[in-house]
Amino acid sequence: MTTSRSSISPDRLRAVAPALPWAIALAVLAYAFIAGGYLVTVMSFALIYAIFVTGLNLFMGYAGQVTFGHNAFAALGGYGSAVLTSTYGFPPLGGFVAGMALALCLALLVGYPTLRLKGHYLAMATLAIGLIVYEIAVQWQAVTGGYMGLSGIPPLGIGRFEIVSDRWQLAVLAVIVALSIWSAMRLRASRFGRALVAIAGSEDAARALGIDVAHYKLMAFLISAAYAATAGWLFVHVVGFVSPEVFGLHMVVLAFTMLYVGGIGTAAGPLIGAVIISLLPETFRALKDYQDLAYGAGLILLLIYAPKGLAALGDLIPRSKRS
Amino acid sequence: MSGQPAPILEVRELSARYGSVEALHAATLSIADGEFVAILGPNGAGKSTLMRAVMGLVPNSGAVHFRGHALPRVAPDACAALGVVLVPEGRGIFAPMTVEENLELGAYLLGDATELGRRRERAFALFPRLKERLHQVAGSLSGGEQQMLAVGRALMAGPDILLLDEPSLGLAPRVTEDILAALAQLNRDGLTIVLVEQKAPLALKLASRAYLMSLGRVVAEIDPRTVTSYDDIAQLYLS
Pick the residue with more confidence: A231 or B227? Predict the structure, then answer.
């Protein structure tokens, strides 16, 4: 073993490995906060996506289900609040409650019948919701502004206190992300979370243990939809503008990439995936025309050398032989 | 027989199908309280389907009575709640979770923490290996340990009757013996056991009674005492 020659033993490295993704994410965040400028914008997007992906991870990573349509819930959370605040003068928090209610109603309406489907059928059904909501955002011009979108959406704030500076927005986002991840971890460690992972393992075995599979799948779907709606709401208020493209299929593809690169089924995966995938294209900006090529190659390398995601990189450190 | 205790599980005319293929034809059998019954038969005889149909895991028709009450036919969670618990073929343990989490899931329907602790200790007493591996991820256990976990998890549900679908599948002979010995111990302690097994000699050593299945039907009831040699078993399978 070559690593045994270095002063840090693999065992010790393995012990600190789980903390590494958190440390990296925190370091990047701190750096962005201090450096300011464009990096703050990039990190703000990363954090909003981290919330979206954390919700996706509950449904896909823990419960083992497939959804291609969670952009619909982000769109409802985002557009719901955008319309109410910019057109009707609601406060952002009021918009949040309304958008969340809309998203949860749709999730219930869609989830109740479709969660009895398995695998590909569920994926197709959810894909359809995403496409339908996107089309509505495009076509219902009187309310959504169509392709032109809506602008003049007020920033986040409570009452007369508004968060205008980029840095403060980043700080608030960081707190919300921390809360999101913390609650996802609590959920995973609970009886509810164990039931979800059991369903992912084998629905039959879970049912034979007395777990009401359909009920739990629906609950997981609703909770992940709530995360998506929160992300959509944050997005429109941080950017101040919304158009259908924001919540298009691209959002799903991007979120999937983050989930798999970061590590599906892990707590740190969504955050680290969101940060890395948001930063990667920026890193390769100097390569100009070859930027996409470098980004694609980077992704392939990541998936080859860290197939379980970056959050599980610690597993790659060789175990020392037991004496 | 006279003086036989009341049946704990009665299966009448139970049929089950996968799509257009009927895999179980009108199976009828009766299990008495405290019995150890083996279900024997070659591959594809419908043994697993019988277990899954009793639990309501496959679409089925017919009647299953547990302690005189009709079991709902498509609600495995209700069966588990009543005390009919299955250790499925291929174990069905949850590989990404720790041994401890798997055991806790077994007692999923139990709200009482002290009873949960009691059941855990009983599972550890039966399989000390589980206690050693408590915080290990279940997927990293050996085949035998995984089967122990599957049985331990089923016991956590506090069953009145335990159905086991080929627990010896893919295990080394010695490990198989350990697990079957544990089942015999559980039966001596009063648990009713129904064991599906292809390895007839092993099952007949433990069982007080056996049913033989073939091509989706229960074709014979066997008294293990009358089966003394391998030739007898071969005779049963071939007739």
Answer: A231
ipTM of the prediction? 0.74
Report the alpha-carbon distance of residue B34 to residue B19 in Å, rounded: 36
Q: DSSP 3-state assignment of A115?
A: coil
Residue window 231-270, chain A: list those with CB within 8 Å of chain B: 265
CB contact under 8 A, B106 and A204: no
φ, ψ of residue B195 to 5 degrees: the values are -115, 120
Q: How many residues does chain A have?
A: 323
For residue A4, the model assigns a pLDDT of: 46
Range among B73-87, B114-128, B219-233 with highest mean pLDDT value: B114-128
Which chain A residues have a beta carbon less than 8 Å from that of B136?
none
Give the number of C-alpha atoms closer than 13 A to the C-alpha of residue B150, restricted to the C-beta side.
Answer: 30
- Chain A residues with CB-CB distance to B97 below 8 A: 194, 197-198, 201
Name every chain B residue with its beta carbon within 8 A of the beta carbon of A269: none
- CB contact under 8 Å between A197 and B76, yes or no, is no
Pairing of strands A157-158, A161-162: antiparallel
Residues A52, A53, A55, A56, CA torsion sign: positive
3-state secondary structure of A47: helix
Q: What is the pTM of this model?
A: 0.81
pLDDT given at position A119: 65
Q: What is the pLDDT of residues B146-181, one digit of tens each?
A: 999 999 999 998 899 999 999 888 888 888 888 999
Judged by a CB distance cut-off of 8 A, whether residue A308 touches chain B is no
- Searching chain B, which residue's CA lies closest to the CA of residue A62? B96
